[in-house]
Amino acid sequence: MTYYNNAVITKRELLVRLIQLLDTNKLLDDIDRIPLEMRPRTNSPIRCCVHKDRAVIKYKLMALLGFNIADEQDELTPLKEYAEQALEGYTQNGNFLTVVDEACSSCVQVNYTVSNLCQGCEGRPCQVNCPKDAIMVLNGKANIDHQKCVNCGICQKACPFHAIAYLPVPCEESCPVKAIRKNADGIEEIDFDKCIHCGKCMTACPFGAISEKSQILNLFNNIKHKKEKTVAMVAPAILSQFKASSAQILNSIKAVGFDEVMEVAEGANMTTDHETNELLERLNSGATFMTTSCCPSYIEFSEKHAPELKPFISDTPSPMAYTAMLAKKRFPEHKAVFIGPCLAKRTEVYQNQNIDYVITTEELGAVFAALKFDLVKTDDSPIVSKVVRPESRGYAASGGVTNAIKTILSSEHNITTELIDGIDKKSIRLLRSLPNKKVTDASFYEVMACDGGCINGPVNVSPLKVSQNKLKKAIQEIQSEEAAV
To answer: Smallest Cα–Cα separation from 338: which of 422, 246, 249, 236?
Structure first.
């Protein structure tokens, strides 16, 4: 899902600047200068003028400080005041996306438009085939009456000159549950009664107008000043995102200030064991199938859009939840911090009292960049428990949960499996159909909201193909250690 463009570069630069200012104790003095420094008068403006560009930067910074843009009461409130609140621990409300209205371009709602390629041909197939009589030819060119047009696309298919173009609204187009629409002012608005926090709209927007609300400032401030001890719970997908070995990545996380480091793959061991037993118990009691429960976007989807699926979803906690239980037992005085590639994990953490903070792959990368940390020069010796199984690191990729369960099931268990790789319109139809089938095609369904799994999450820093190869190496590292023993 990672989509690299200038809007993403801007977001990451803002994260790096925030952490650098905090690290040098200049945050409150210099934060309000960031928009001026990043958008100087000497540069050509990206929008209409430099003032618009600076306003966009200001509101993107507000989001990274943890605020909803709609929280603003006074436009003259300086960023310094928001930063002070963030350092004190601004309370979030459970909705972790916000629309930066200054950045939203108000993409046109019109989906089909006639370009200059129109030849005004005598055949006029676009006009003849339009089921709503929405096309007229005026002055030798077809014109679409958008009051009549129903966006069926027949005219586009009929035009022999490919003169009719489809204009998507990227964020709306990408949302699988239609949770984002324009308000009366033409600005995109997220309906959190529908939103499943998959992050697809955020990565689709080419203006960077949709942002997550971050905890990085408050967390890094606590780490820097040693206000509280912390234990980092590192998702397997993190090991696929940086140009270093698994041990170097984990050691680097500890080196930037965390007191303890745990792999979430350790919790995945427990998820595998419990979910396998639960699957067998359910099938033995007459259930036709069971689905996984570790993807929080899928859980939100079932709760908000397909409650009929809930009886068929595993009750087994996610690897993150199990790891948090272990962390609280081993390090009861530490604040637990989940580090992962998933925006929806923020919603799961919000409901989990064992976890105190979430930071993303992108935010971790910004910490490394801000502190000029060279991962490949870090100690390569293992620092975590050797109880992590190779297949537990495999949870990060689609098919990983299924593979882990198959390693436990004996050949006498006739379990058929199916992978639902990404939540989209097609997979939604399939999911909704499952409870109504007397006999399903599979006994066990693994459901991942992101195509390719967590290694393709919305806040990752590495392309999918690269991540897949790195994850294989991370798994092989454990296999090599086991072989050496």
So the answer is: 236
Chain Cα centroid distance, residue 390: 25
Mean pLDDT of the chain: 92
Residue 144: CB partners within 8 Å, gap ≥ 6? 110, 112, 113, 114, 134, 135, 155, 164
pTM, rounded to two decimals: 0.91
CA 2 to chain centre: 9
Q: What is the dihedral sign for C-alpha 248, 252, 253, 255?
A: positive
* Closest residue by Cα to residue 312 from 293, 337, 331: 293
Other CB atoms within 10 Å distance of the CB of residue 284: 8
Q: Could you read off the pLDDT of 458-482 as tens digits, one per residue?
A: 999 999 999 999 999 999 988 876 6
Kindly state the tokens that stand for 386. Answer: 């050797």
Distance of alpha carbon 467 from alpha carbon 366, whole angstroms: 18
List, in sequence order, the alpha helices (H) in 344-387: 345-350, 361-370
Which of 298, 269, 479 has its CA nearest to residue 395?
269
Euclidean distance between CA atoms 447 and 375, whole angstroms: 33
CA distances to 146, 243, 391, 419 from 469, rounded to whole Å, are 48, 11, 15, 20
Can you read off the two tokens belonging to residue 93? 């409300």
The pair of structure tokens assigned to 44 is 């050509």
Helix (H, G, I), strand (E, B) or coil at 377: helix
Residue keyed to tokens 């041909």? 121
Q: Is the pLDDT of residue 140 over 60?
A: yes
Taking CA 416 as the corner, what is the angle to CA 411 and CA 419, rounded to the nearest 5 degrees? 130
